[in-house]
Specification:
alpha/beta, 253 residues, 34% strand, seven-stranded mixed beta sheet
Length: 253
Amino acid sequence: MGDVRNAEFEDPRLVEVYDAEYVGGWDDDLFVALLAERNAPRVLDFGCGTGRLAIRLAAAGHEVTGVDPARASLDAARRKPGAERVRWVEGSGEQVPSRSFDAALLTSHVAQFLVNDEQWLSTLRALRRSLVVGGRLIFDSRDPDAQQWTRWNPGDSRRSVVMPDGQLVDTWTGVDSVVDGVVHFTRHYRFTHGDELASSATLRFRSENELRTTVEAAGFDVDRVFGGWAREPVGTGEDGELIVLAVARPQGR
């Protein structure tokens, strides 16, 4: 059984499972609705993965740039219908041009993969540089108070993913450690013909206050924070999310 770090984004077989499992839902709908609140013709989808939301936004008329460090995920994105409308960039914050976007999105909890404080703050600063004054940053992060990792166990997390060819892939998650808001976990995949693969990862769970403090330190003013996909207040409902909307303030303020 192979175990590769972040393999669900790097291994073509697991990228295909990811695409079959995550087809979009309330999260995408909320990001689209929030983006539509103001004119935002130029959109950066940072950590775009396999491109589901980027392609949807491009089809709606936005000029979209999708940035991701995982080549296998971008290869999958480029094969999708409508992918030609998106500019795809393999890389990280260093590849993002300055003052080129009206909005920047980090979806699917990409923010949590930026584990250490220096990496998180440098990414936020790169995103601030990428935005025009008044441009918006919109991202999601799981609320640590909800302790969602307690449900990442073989019993509660086990499910079957139906692949496009009808094959079933059984998958489940196990947590390896939880220390000071940093969760190490491994997701397991068992294919119909018996192959087993695993993908290990590390996520950082930041509180609402930590998110507000770091976002503001990077040059933004926090506008709103929701606690769920129906725009619930933080700490209410069942989603256990922290969905942050921030506005790029003038440099020097």
